[in-house]
Design goal:
By secondary structure, the protein is mainly alpha-helical. Among the domains are: 82 residues, no CATH class; 108 residues. It has 20 helices and 4 strands.
Length: 463
């Protein structure tokens, strides 16, 4: 009862804080992404603090649309008026829009999730997964695109990520020094310590922080107040340390690649990127231990890599029998059980292997959860995002110099963030978690906003 009272007080504060300026709600949700860990029930419906904020923000948006007479009973009329095509609105509106090229893959992606929900044997669990990973993130995307338009508002998204990263780092530092609240003995022991922070397991830190780190690093070149640059620099260093202390090797490799691409793309740092690459490559070649470790990581032949390979083999066997619908939402563990081996031999020792929630591969994750149509839609979506980023860099030529530079830094940031997600996703699950699904659509939303700045003069004029 006390918890529900405190949660209710928090939501009242959230409404009072966000109602006058809805973008505040967007920033606060980003800042509080880990609050999906605070769980409660309303009328036997499980919810998290994060979900409640997203639902309240979306409801407030609908009320504001209704008050401004932009909300229609006819859904088609409302969508047409709220998100018109580029050709109809150029020069007449200051709102961000959903470009036609990306609207269809988003729709197919969402529709695939609905189909997966209707087909899954785990109806209750599947419904919870669906609302948290598909419905609510797209609700958040709609509000974000409607209210985040100016350069200053985009910057505040980055500052919110920076503060969040520093908060996670502070928790990581406490755990690194004391071992406090680390749940597993192997992670707790000083010689093998891996920080877990809010999330309860180490890899969750890398999954969230690595894409954010790439985005923040690219924006360090944006012209702004010195103390804001220092904030972002501190947060970037914090992200690297947290990922290292968490022992999330996949995240560290993915982030390193993202940072390298940023440095290589920028003219002033291209030589530095090449020199660093040569030094790292030479260091690996000349150090037997590093050479062995890197070979194992790249060939996925180390201990965790062999477990991943066994899991992928089992998942592919399962998908051969379920190629269209996959396992269904929240049904992977049950679907994979007939194909699962209880263990495997690693370095001449038998190793028991549990059944994980997901296959730990970005392609197999989506295929298993939302079927072949969902997999097709997410591949299509990534291709379209690449096309949008390409068009951003082509169409920005008509913009003034300061605007070109700003969009160049941001487009490079979202590009590297998506690369981090894909690379890390080769061996992990970079989407199917409350905070990660919202993070993915935030980065997608920033891409759409940047694109609209290059094709719509009225939006481009906003600062």
């Amino acid at each position: 009862m006390l918890n529900l009272l405190l949660i209710s007080i928090f939501y009242i504060f959230f409404i009072v804080f966000a109602w006058p300026k809805m973008e505040r709600g967007v920033y606060l949700i980003i800042l509080l992404l880990p609050t999906y860990l605070i769980r409660f029930q309303i009328i036997n419906i499980p919810l998290t603090l994060l979900e409640g904020m997203v639902l309240l923000l979306f409801l407030m948006w609908l009320i504001k649309l209704w008050q401004s007479k932009k909300l229609h009973i006819a859904i088609s009329a409302w969508l047409k008026k709220t998100f018109r095509s580029e050709t109809e609105i150029v020069g007449t509106t200051k709102r961000n829009l959903i470009p036609k090229i990306i609207a269809l893959p988003i729709f197919i992606f969402f529709l695939s999730s609905i189909v997966a929900l209707t087909l899954t044997p785990q109806t209750i669990l599947g419904a919870g997964i669906w609302k948290a990973y598909f419905l609510e993130p797209l609700m958040f995307l709609g509000v974000m695109l409607y209210y985040i338009r100016k350069n200053s508002e985009i910057n505040k998204l980055i500052y919110a990520f920076s503060i969040l990263s520093i908060a996670v780092f502070i928790y990581a530092l406490i755990q690194k020094l004391t071992g406090w609240n680390i749940p597993t003995l192997d992670w707790y022991l000083p010689e093998t310590r891996r920080v877990t922070t809010f999330f309860g397991y180490p890899n969750a830190n890398g999954l969230l922080l690595a894409p954010i780190g790439a985005l923040i690093f690219a924006t360090l070149w944006i012209k702004e107040y010195t103390f804001l640059k220092i904030l972002k620099l501190i947060s970037f260093i914090s992200i690297i340390l947290t990922i290292m202390w968490a022992g999330s090797e996949g995240a560290l490799i993915a982030l390193s690649l993202g940072v390298f691409i940023i440095l290589l793309t920028k003219k002033h740092t291209r030589l530095l990127a090449i020199i660093l690459a040569i030094i790292c490559f030479a260091g690996i070649l000349l150090t037997p231990t590093l050479r062995t470790v890197m070979f194992e990581k790249l060939t996925i032949s180390d201990h965790s890599g062999q477990i991943r390979q066994a899991q992928w083999t089992e998942t592919i066997s399962m998908l051969r029998d379920r190629p269209i619908n996959g396992s269904g939402l929240a049904n992977y563990k049950q679907a994979i059980e007939p194909y699962h081996s209880s263990g495997l031999t690693i370095n001449d020792k038998w190793q028991p292997v549990e059944i994980f929630l997901y296959p730990h591969n970005i392609i197999l994750n989506f295929w298993a959860e939302i079927g072949i149509y969902g997999l097709f839609s997410i591949i299509w979506l990534f291709i379209v995002l690449g096309v949008l980023i390409y068009r951003i860099n082509i169409k920005k030529k008509w913009l003034p110099k300061y605007k070109k530079e700003y969009i160049n830094h941001l487009s490079l940031g979202v590009s590297s963030a998506f690369i981090v997600i894909i690379v890390h996703g080769l061996v992990d699950v970079p989407y199917f978690k409350n905070d990660l699904s919202i993070l993915f659509w935030i980065i997608t939303g920033i891409t759409i906003i940047l694109y609209n700045h290059t094709v719509n003069k009225k939006i481009a004029e906003l600062e």
